[in-house]
Model the fold of this input.
Amino acid sequence: MLSTPSSSPSGSCRQAPLRRGLHLTGLALLILLLGWPGSSLAQSPEPPEKGTEGLSPLISKALQIIDTLYLHPAAVDPKRMLRAAVQGTEHMDPAILVTEQGVDKLLLQASGQRWILNTDVVDLREMELRLDQALDFLSTARLSEEVDRDQLEQAALRGLLRTIDRHSRLFAGNSLDEFNTRFKGTLVGIGSTIGKRGGKMRIIRPFPDAPAGRAGLKPSDHITHVDGVSTAGLTVEETVDRIRGPKGMPVVLTIVRGEEPGPRIFVLVREKVLVPSIESELLAGDVGLIRIERFSQKTSAEFERHLTELQQGRRLAGVVLDLRGNTGGSMRHASRIVNFFVEQGTIIRTEGHDGQPVSRLTPRIDAQTERLRYSGPVVTLIDRRTASGAEIVAGALKMMGRSLTLGAQSYGKGTVQKIYPLRKSGEKVSMKLTVARYLLPEETFVNGVGVTPDIALGTLWLDPDQVVLPDDFREPAELRGEGSGRGGLDGRRNPGAGREQATSGINSAPVMNLLSARVLEGWAPGEATTESPESKPRQVTSQAETNSAPGVSDLPGDAGEDRFNDMDLRLAHEVILTAQGNATREQLIALARPQVRHWQQVQGGRLTTLAKSRSIPLDAGKNPGWMRRSPGTEQQVRKRLLAPPPQLDAELLLPEQLEAGEETRVIVRVRNTGSVPVQGLRARLHSSSRVLDDIDFLLGDLEPGQKRESGVPISVYRGAPSRLDPWRLYLIDAQGPLGGPYQGTARTLGEARPQLALKVLSQTTTEPGGGTRIDCNVQVRNQGQGRSGELRVQFGRPEDEGVELLEQFQSIEGLNPAQQGEVQLSLRVRDPEALPQLHLRLRARDRSTGVSSTLELELPSSGAGADTGWREPARITMGFPYDRAGDPPARAAGPFTIHGEVESGAGLDWAELRLGRDKLWTASAATSPERHQSHRWELRSPATPELGPNRITVRAHSLSGITSTREFWVLGEVAKP
Done:
């Protein structure tokens, strides 16, 4: 949720005093500038000294804004920011390597030059000076032509922003335009959403009041060409870029519709169009349903129009606001929607790090009587994805007594970001920064906790293979094997940000709760397609009657359709049908009680019967207490998660090792060793393995001395790597978690990997009009030891707009070792004389294992074709962690040494090694004569793993122009004393 300033920050922002950093004397500053570089390893001239006037304007402006406006100053750690900024440049070029060099020092290496950076800084001014010199060192090294000083600065800014919070980020080029389109709610184009369906570019939703809708474009229309350019080789983003353009200019779409024999041509004139963020419909009984997808700067006006249309010629019985899945947007326009339902009171207040208003951010929004549009009953639907601006609407309406709130605890984003332009000329660069928190009525702060529904609703998905539970107990970080986090302003690591979270009032426990069952085909015969008799509509004639005969929603459909099974919407509809004008939250809660009790009996009995059909004893008529959770009970839940399970003995039955490409079964076996029955027992499995994570087991009621087991089939995907993954098994009864997890480690044995060599044969053909067509026969050979899955072969996006890809990709079925396959890829060159040589990248990727080869090549755009011959990737082998088939997955308790080798018959250009995001080792033939002569390089580097699985990535580029990538895994464990 953010607010964008109407203009850039004033020029005085850069000259404003830093909160930290004015204590340096002239002598101290001189020592700082002259004394910090380490000289013992410097093998190139040190970066030139410069005063503050010579520093990067981009970085200076960003740091000044952070220093003066960032919401949580305690999270600004100059030392961490400096290290992250320098390390953020590593991915820009294989020649850059940044490694630890003792305490508070980084060793920078670039193209054979080495230099030590002292990271022991105390404020942002000192950090800026040292970062500037580090960037000077890197920019004077012999890096690739694509990397310049400006790109290094942007990479450094992205790195340092990652240290403060996940909502602050850098925008450059078109990325800000896309963000503004979503935020402003308008764009210049034809007014339609498009996407890939069945491998074809299609119209998804034409907007009725835009050129696309008026011209008669329909959903599923296949867009074959945009202005004569085939969409076959374009991504969705590239197609959108071509369709958009200057206002008033035409764009020509070639459309194939259904089974029609020929294409249709649509000439559409681009105009400024509204991107819809709202849908509405009238439900039975004159109940208005309004779904808000997001909050743009047009949403409040759009909402008012929908509300007016729903009220046209009728008196609405009530309104259902559906905010499920709405992740937010404009704070101002979210507040305006609240004002449509309230006529007085403060809706929202904002404050910066010092508790004061933030410049160019609305400090307070009060309801205005003249904006009131509806005073009848309102029910708001929320879920775990409801966030930011949507939480303003849900929270304010609840706090101001204007809405009954149904659903699940919302996400909990209570901070505000603003966009600050850092550079307006050339490539535009802007920064989104967290600068404020918003407070709902009664100074309520929901960051990290969200909004608690008045009535908690959850769905139990009964899949014949696996039951999916609605409750989402957040594991304590120490049980996930995580530390305290990187710091910064984060909803989980630093939820308060200087303010206490709301754990009462708006976030008091739900007054009631309801668990409903959603049955998938195969669980119980006929259940998925038979409408239950309780769903038949009943007319309610008076409020008094609601205690004995609650009204039932007349939503259409049967038990196999989403609308019928949407218990949240169904209950909201029923409450409004019985409201008869009662519009306060307390009145609606009272009216909802008999409705919920009715459905508790219906759904409880239904769930009991469904469980019995699978021989699971379950008395679901007793309402599960675990659903009445709130932020105020989280600490209690956490304690129960960490405590030993009482009077229960459980085990997880896994094969000794999971093997890639195979199916197996995971079984939980539990025995009640106590003297008290356990009601509604279930288990949840968490793991760093995606195969084992978030698996639920329904065990039912367990009497003393009884033992029961529940199994779930799992499929280990082809291409799964050899690795070790910790797992944790939790037991939960009808009231909540029963205690800390049973723990173990799962072993996965991967398959031998393929290795992909490439060859390209091209032919050129002159086309009418002067252009040329290049047809490429691309051959792929598997020279590895393992079989590949489906191979996707494609050219990268051409650098020149005059080159058109005629296919986005082609596929080859799996290849056995030594087997080869081929595909045809084609390009069109509009003006071959202006572009005699094409610089292209060709990639083949195994979709099962992730193994890929990328070939950089040049093709003539006219005349004779080309034959690249076979280009073989470098061979990558590891001594530790192990790589050979049958070797056990690797583990390390504390620091260890990664060693292996890369080899290429054509010779090696460069290679690099990473542990997670951190680059540990790099080598280049360009800066090492002895490496230039060698076809085999040894790689060796010390490494310190994080707790849990660690990804090791090796990339190597051969002199034949092909880049190959391999991944390995090592489990980081706590060292034993």
About this structure: The chain has six domains: 11-164, 186-274, 278-459+471-515, 643-744, 756-860, 875-973. The radius of gyration is 31 Å. The chain has 16 helices and 49 strands. Residues 1-49, 483-495, 528-551, 557-561 have pLDDT under 50 and may be disordered.
